[in-house]
Structures
1.
Amino acid sequence: MNVDLHTHVSLKTMLGAVKNAERNSCWYTLKSNFLDALSGGILGSQSSLNQMKSGNIQMAVTPLYSLEHAFSKSWLLKDVVTKIEKKLSKKYLTKIRDNQISPYANLCEELQHVRDAENSNMVLIESIDSFDPGKMNLILALEGLHSFQDKYIDSVQAHLAAITKNFTDFIIQNRVLYVGLSHLTRNPICTHSYAMKMINDQAFIPEGSGLTDTARAMIDLCYSGTAKFGKKVLIDIKHMGLNSRLQFYEYRKHKNYTSIPIVASHVAVTGCSFNNIKINSAHASDKYEDCIEVSYQHTSSDVVYKYETSPQLEYVDFNPWSLNLFDEEIENIILSEGIIGLILDMRVLGSKGDDFGDMDPEGSEYFSKASYESLKAENRFNTNPDTTPITDPTDTVDIDSIVGLKSTMHLFANLLHIIRTYHKQHNNLKAWDHVCIGSDSDGLIQPIKEYQNATNFDDLREAMFEVFEAERKRDHLKVYFGTFDSRMLVNKLFYSNATKFINANL
């Protein structure tokens, strides 16, 4: 059995029509062979309920999310993609563009859309006491407080009033495990992380310099224990900008919230400290106002492999974009008894994607001018070239026999860095209890090539077992596996860690 901390069961079918009565069920699997061949698998279904059932997913957290306004303005999505793929609705996108759909009403429709899919094989649960071992169990989360606006286009004051009221009402009426404060576009809550190269629009470029007063009020509300059943709603730090996250950690200390678990639901790692962010250059953007364009140096892992048919060594790099976790954040999350869900997007993991929406680690990331100046004043950027020599290992793993090949090694490298980072500070392997899979399937990801959708979960589990068995034989990596059996470690990653976390916090 498998557990997924973050997967979208309803996003693709929501895009198919304006009203639920016209939409395909969440069980429906959208196939888009032509566009997926161009996009690296972004558009076809990756986590329909049928795919998840085939992948032996017993429990999953599914975020509700209202599509952001900037997507509806994209000619590529609205005019080209919908013309080729008839299962995606141009009318739906046009109504969002024209401010004829309420984000909050849309979110409530999505909740009903998921509930309509309940049957003898799936149940939406609000308490661990309702867990049904004979069914797939879904748990609600929320991705972006923009979804609680009454309108897409309105004044900031109107947005903030609507978000405060609607979000408060929603978490009292519905059990939500975690909420992300921001998503991919500008919002009135906090500065977000840049993550959208596919569409050129100022709305995707971060603005501001961190948390607003409303963000702090929302954190207080979530942590107050006044949500449904007297529970807390946990904060998911994914998509928050680095400034926002740094301020979030400080605010937790100030308010004595540090024992409340932090969620990083679908992430990878940068491979470095947030006090040593290695960049090549930073300059004012030619494309966007009040924006700094930053290019990074490579951040390399210790994972090296080769193919039997080639003498060339393959070095696994991380993706250093600030969307991903810095070393201090890994420690913060684990010390809070939180959870880190590893994403299955090859670009975010550091494996260079295809040209369509490629998040190339060698490409540029955009920071708001205010955020960049704040980080620079704190001496967080390092422009000195890394002169550390690369030493070819003598015990390189031959991966010809490993099913997952290159993409699996990137997933492993990100996992290993989490284990190593915590071990370096605390000399123990506690980190193995705080990692799981948060695939972000159907969240417009480019899936790692050998695991295109949820039906492949067991294949990925087996490939990771083979990687563990091979890598733990390398002298300098043995300490990070300890005496744990590889099967036990795989089960922690794919099932038991997320299960324990949900049991403790739902």
2.
Amino acid sequence: MSDEHMVTTQWGTKAKSFAAMESAERTERLQYCVKIMDDIKANTGIDIYLSYGCLLGAQRDGKMISHDFDIDLCFHVEAEEKADVVSECRRLIRYLETVSHRVVVETNGHFKIGKWYKEGIYMTIEFFVSWSVDEDFYMYFGVPGRAIATDVLPFGTIDIEGVAMVAPNNPPAVLEAIYGPDWQTPNPEFRYESIDWSPFQGFSVNNNKQYWDGYYADKKSNDVWAEYPSQFAAFCASEIGARSRLLDFGCGNGRDALFLSQIGHDVLACDYSAQAVELVKAKGEVIKSAIEAEVLNIYDVAQVQKFEQKRAASFDVIYSRFVMHAITQDGQNRFLNTAKAMLAPGGKILLEFRNSNDARKQEGNTISEDERSDGHYRRFIKTEDFVANVDGAGLEIAYLAEGTGFAKFRDEDPNVTRVILMKAEKVETL
């Protein structure tokens, strides 16, 4: 492939342009997209429609833009509250995962799916959420609330590369809202000069990662840097059998993982912050601990699948403190499923997290009823909701307590929930 057919995306990466494809291949890809769109509508009730660069090319001349590189679709949800919009996005992601699409979550309003749709050809499709509140229409991330809802709904169709696809009923109005008044003029160098992210606050799944990377990058300002274990780790020490194989999920600065390693357990410490993982490794070398540490991001489906394949049923204990409230509900669901797969029969999951009675819930910007952001994301978990979630995951609760006094740190005494979950012993068959 010649360099002229490689393009630099608005995100700074390289990609194969549509100019490098024969017309028949472009048509075939779009026909496959229509099948996916129809399947989603039939099984979830969610409308999928053409948007961004694909809509732009369709409206200009009925073709994919030659210097473009991906297929852009939007999914419109019947919700007005942000929490409900996010919930619908997660519902769609879960459905796509069940039908064997590889899903890469960028945010709670934007994800990509990939699949080998024919031998030797892998296709990626990008999805963006949209919703409307009366006349105001929102499309992640290009339309932060414009009075064009009636230009989108009810949906119409538009032809692109000979394929009829669902689209807004007035594409020019939508394209102007996305790209500005000059949308009809081709511009291979187009970049988004500024984006109003305010309507989409709380959609990101990486804000915490950026926050914690920065936090752990300077260990001098982190004065609890692996100096002593948490109250929860001390409590759990008596709940763990001798020389257990233990996974610390969301290990942070590693103080608990290192403590558990030093009292005789085989510990693998994981975190989605590479800075945190490097800190744990460095401290482990200093104190001559045999601890292992690696990066694991629960939102990275491909990475988690590789992790599961390598270590299925290989841990006696999975330990996680102050992590559940730092990830989304979807992240929690993923964690419980992964943890269950990682545990040996009879294994334990030891958890501590902030609950909905914690005073911190009154602070920060409100994302939803139980979600806040005050520099980084927190979710204040209703204990009864977590119990229901555990039941759905096929795990058993062996111990549960909630209240203050469990996690004191300096002047703060959070209201937390402590849980010990059990994976059933293997049932012998006759």
3.
Amino acid sequence: MKKMGFSFNKARAIKELAAAVFEKKIDLTIIKKMPDEEVKKITSSWNPYADVVYFHLLLNKLEKMGAI
């Protein structure tokens, strides 16, 4: 992730999200249906990079909807 320009902490947040999905602690199919405030609560543990994770989830959601 360093080659992609992510700092250590940003990479940590993304890796933790990926691990949580892999370990079935977070279900992305459910997150897609959640209100934004609920998603923010889930990603808040990755502060100060929670916004980066939240933004990524939002972009993914918009892409799947065909909005972008």
4.
Amino acid sequence: MHTRGSRQSVALVGALAATACGRDPSSGPGETETAVVDGSETNAGDGDGDGDGPGETETDTDTDTDTPAPACGDGNLDDGEACDDGNLDDGDGCSAGCELSGGALLETCMPEPDWPERLEVLTLATVDGVPELQLGGTTQGELFYQTAWVLRLSSDCELLWATSASLPLAAREVTGVEQIDDSGAAWITGWGYDEEVLADGPGWSWLGRIEDDGSWAWLEDALPVDKPIATVVRDDASAVVLGQGQWTGANSLHGFSPTGSLDWSTAYWSSDEPLSRGLALERVGGELLTIGGVWTHDEDYVSVSASVWVSRLSDSGEPLANSVHPSPRFSFASARASVHDPITDTLALAVREYDVPLVDEMMAWVRLDASGETVLAWRSIGPGFPLDIEPDGEGGAYVLGRVDNQLRLGHHGPDEEAPALWEVSNDHFPISLAVDLEGGRAYVLTDSGIDVFML
């Protein structure tokens, strides 16, 4: 039985300081008390005419600088302030009125002994209407990271249960934890390899089902399919997994029954076609959408470009149509993550953009119609490498990126010309994003734990 974890709060801004400034009245034996009257000091002194004698007045020529009155924006957390970041700017987590606002870092949930050594994936589940966090990772074994862990945490990061699976002398990587239904059961996907695989490739996939109490319903290991990088779960608890060759970048789709047996596989790229690479998978209206990038070039590879690529397939993996969307600003563009927003029935994509030579790597978020055929908005959001995206339910999106190995998280509205609603950063190394719209929280998995932000 695992003990419940704890969390460590992170200070929002500075420390509370209180300073008093003034003169102490002299009151010792033989000392004369001075009174201040209209800026002058009246003294019962010695009467020598130098200003300190009886009835003589001495004008105070010293300049006393009092400590400024506490004010919002001074960098000190004063009474009545929820935060103070040293400025009067909005959109950075602390408003111009020193109130917490979107992007405020509320806390960082620090790793506990029950957590895996290497944190790899974070998703959000809703169990009987209550949001819970699903955390996947691995722990070092004799030779590799051999033990795969899955943890269920409450929305305030308390450990509910932890479970693991290991394979002697083989490495594991958790690539997905996806909720099956409102009961809290989940599909787990991952990749495995050993010393022979390191020499010859390409490794193998493994997958399993975990019930809401953390018990394994089943675990299928050493499946001869590509590395799973995205999974969608159907209503009947069956699943479709997007696979990617570890060394080749080739794509494949695999359909699995609710008990993990392989029902069908489809490979939809070959060497005589433009190189396409699927990095995300959605299921919309009973059809599958693989989303990523497609690279085109001339015969001599002199002219090379890349565009956002969406491949629409039937629910059993039969190709239906492809859509290609070039960047309006750069010669290279590739979607790194996607999500279907059921409220607006649109697709939100986190896109990487750049030119060759790679000098400036930029992030963009792109909104497509539900079929992936029409671009509704294309918004550049600045330097960085996009990692994850979640919709805000109003046509905008929360985008997680990495800039110089540091976290960058922003809320971008539907107007592609308007500035970000808010954008924040810190020095943690970001991995993935989960958003609880009803709870008003964004959870970012980092190498340091889980950062919890206010939406």
